[in-house]
Amino acid sequence: MSGLGQFLRSFGAGRVAAMGVVTLALVGFFAFTIMRFTAPQMVPLFSDLSLQDSAAVVRELEQQNVAYELRGDGAGILVPKEQVAKLRMALAEKRLPAGGSVGWEIFDKGDGFSATSFVQNVNHLRALEGELARSIGSLDRVASARVHLVIPERPLFTRDAPQPSASIVIRARGELDPGEIRAIRHLAASAVQGLKPEKVSLVDEGGRLLADGAGTEEAGGAGADERVAALEKRLRDRVEAIVGRVVGSDRARVEVRAEIDRTKSTLTSDSFDPDSRVVRSTQTREESAQTSEPAEQSVSVANQLPNAAPPAAQGQQAKDASNKSEEVVNYEISRTTRTETQDGGRVKRLSVAVLVDGVYSRAANGDVSYAPRPQDELDRIGALVRAGVGFDAARGDAVEIVNLRFADLPGAGSADPVAEGFLGLDRADMMRAAELAVLTLLAILVLLFVVRPLLRKALAPEGGRASTAALPAAPGPDATPEQIAAYAAQVAASPSLQGPQGGDLTPIGMGEAETNARRLAGAEIASKVKAESVERIGELVRNNPAESAAIIRQWLQEPA
Question: CA-based angle 390:395:399, to the nearest 5?
Answer without folding.
Answer: 55
